[in-house]
Design goal:
Structural class: mainly alpha
Distance between the termini: 43 Å
Radius of gyration: 21 Å
Strand content: under 5%
Number of helices: 20
Length: 475
Amino acid sequence: MTGRETAALEYVASALERCGIIDAEQFRPTVDLAWPRIVTGFAIMSKQTADLAMVGVAVGTAGTAGLAYALAFWEIVTMLGLGLAGGTVSLVSQNYGGEETGRASLVVTQSVLLAVGIALPLAAAFLLFADPLIGLFDAEPESIAHGATYLTLVAPAVLFELLNLIASRTYTGVGDTFTEMVARAGGAALNILISGLLIFGFGLGVAGAAIGTTLSTGFVTVVLAWGMVGRSYGVLGMESSPVPLARSGPWLEPTLLAQLVEISAPEIGRRLAQGIVVFPLLWVAGSFGPVVVTALEVGRRVRALINSVNWGLSLAASSLVGQRLGANDEGGADAYGMGIIRLSALCYAAIAVLVVVFAEPIASLFVGPDGRALAAAFVAVGAVSSIGYGIDGAASGALLGAGDTRWPFVASLVGRYAFALPAAALGLVTALDITGLYLALLLETAVPGGINYWLFRSGRWKAVSRRYRPASEAS
């Protein structure tokens, strides 16, 4: 970092401290951890967003609607991986912070074994049952055909993506977010290159997007695996993992495995609640036709890109809170958590304003003139709803660092199934029409965000964390 960049960072840190957002001494390690993760998240989310835009140009509305249906199933893969990886980062950060690197390595090894066990049946289901799975949406035949093609060809990437998420969270847990950023950003660039060549150069349409995703995701797996077995990269500033995969047994330790499952299970549930809600929302949108399906997916994809900020700040909260707790510094953990929550809310509000202002030009990247106004409306609503995501992600990330995942799971269920889905359904039976979908996008983030913020403020997570700290094993 140059002297000018350092001075600018110090100025921002001081300004945020004066405004009561986050302490300057907490801001620096937060930024150090978060910015590579934000780039990583943007790289990951950009793959599907770029595919959607390219398919929209090459194939049209039927292709984008079919891709939206297939991406709903891919989102389930991502959410399962994020849930399992959530337990990984919690235990890795606490054990690493407590200087128990051997236990941290064993956590990673057990996480990889669980990831393989989850991935294989999912990949088989995508490969063997793509048509009936996409057919659940009861959409137009052309859209179903496109969706089934994508789901079949992306099946091998299921295992790659779950392993990538475990490796990424491991690096985050030990405070290294640069290595995974380089790997993920390289994969995203490769995805756009391959997909663009296959979609436009070879005319493969949706199939080209799926092949590009599979090859680029596999590339990331190979790159991260090199460091995860303890090998040095020697280039680009990338580092081998200080908690590598255990090469010799025993690979299973009952107490540690039980802790991993205990923390991961509610986090998997929370993530699945977030992913599964997409299915009924797409079904509701499908009742209004493929143009509405495409507009909803465009809004969700733009919101996912905005949510790249959470990939950094949420994981920074998990890692920093977990490490402070591992060192038995509950006050420091509390200060980090609250500071990052406030910082996240500020960042998301600023980005939302920008996206709302430029909603129509953004929408024009995905759809033609006929559906541009509708897509722009969904982009604007998605941007506003991202503020709830910012609060939810930072608060749940801090709770995750403490190993407190059960109540965030409940918060996700309440927000999405007690509020968002009923709002969307109202559009089918009342004059709300597609306004019900707008309300659903807002409620599915605002309600969990509010609940998780209250949970962190309550401080009950401190007692929960004491069950998982390395010191608790010695006592």
